[in-house]
Specification:
Length: 126
C-alpha cells in the first residue's frame, strides 16, 4: 500500500489536514477518567512524529498513574501502536521514519508538562 493510500484511508494529508480535536481518555481528577470527544490534537513540533493510534496497551503504570492525576484534562496512556501520519522537521527523525510507517512505542501520558500527549487518544506524538 502506498503512503498516499494510507493517508487517504486515515483521512489525513494535504486535502485532509490533521483535525484540531480528537477522542481521548482524560483525567477528571485522581481516580476519575472520561472519554473526551474534544481533546486537543498536539501541535506538531520539529522533533515530533504524530501517530494515528491503532491499539493501546494497559500496564501497571497506567493504573498507578490514575491515582496521581495531576490536573483535569490530561490525556492518559503510555504504550501504543499505530501508523505515522505526520513528521516534524527534525532531520534526525526523517532519516529513520517516513509517513505511513507502522510503529509501536511508549510515551509519558498523564504529564502536566504536556497534557495533550498520551497514548489513549486517536493521534499523539511520541
Amino acid at each position: 500500500m502506498t503512503v498516499d493510500k494510507i493517508l487517504t484511508a486515515l483521512s489525513v494529508g494535504p486535502s485532509h489536514p490533521l483535525p484540531k480535536q480528537q477522542k481521548a481518555v482524560v483525567a477528571l481528577g485522581a481516580g476519575q477518567l472520561i472519554v473526551a470527544q474534544d481533546a486537543p490534537v498536539p501541535v506538531l513540533q520539529p522533533d515530533m512524529i504524530l501517530v494515528k493510534i491503532a491499539a493501546i496497551y494497559l500496564n501497571p503504570v497506567d493504573i498507578k498513574a490514575l491515582d496521581y492525576s495531576h490536573a483535569q484534562g490530561i490525556i492518559m496512556g503510555y504504550d501504543f501502536s499505530g501508523t505515522m501520519v505526520a513528521l516534524g522537521e527534525d532531520e534526525e527523525k526523517s532519516r529513520y521514519f517516513t509517513v505511513g510507517d507502522r510503529v509501536t512505542g511508549v510515551v509519558q501520558g498523564m504529564s502536566k508538562e504536556q497534557p495533550d500527549v498520551g497514548a489513549s487518544a486517536e493521534t499523539w506524538p511520541p
